[in-house]
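Progress report, Aim 2. The chain analyzed during this reporting quarter is listed below.
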Amino acid sequence: MALQPDPDRGLIARIERRDGEALASLYDRYSSRLMGLAFRILGETGEAEEVVQEVFIWVWRAASSFDGGRGTVLAWLLVATRSRSIDRLRTRGPALRAGVRSLEESPEPVSRQDVESDAAGRQWQQICRDAIRELPEDQRRALELAYFEGLTQQEIAERTASPLGTVKTRVRLGLMKLRERVRPYRKGQADA
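Predicted structure tokens for the chain:
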């Protein structure tokens, strides 16, 4: 069976050539997912919308920085959205930071342009949720604080009143368990 060309990579190549319609297509395809992630981290619609706008401006300017060997276009966009959201969260004072969101929850895809892609995405989300549910509570909590609030391990130790070494162990073990749990589903894909 021949591999199908990745339409997202084609859009990125067109964006590199300054094709505005390609950027609009990419936006239509993924803006709702990125908005969901930004909102979950920031807890505020206006800021989440600004983050998504920043991400697509960045895509327009830096499409050539996409490296298909490191992951999918969606993963690249999600990482950019998460990073910008956490940067905004960190500029808030601790009193203004939104509460921790659960790793088990994620926004449902809204785009129906590619039904197979959405179905595969939902299946992958369920696999990840199941893997996260299997983590011990202390490991899951440490990962939630790191992922959704962007806390450093030192900040997690302070927040949870745990020794720094304990937090480092929880994060490391949690990530190792998640990696092992999803490894069978990543066969044929490049390991990150």
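Residues 103-114, 188-192 have pLDDT under 50 and may be disordered. The first helix runs from residue 7 to 16. These observations will guide the mutagenesis work planned for the next reporting period.
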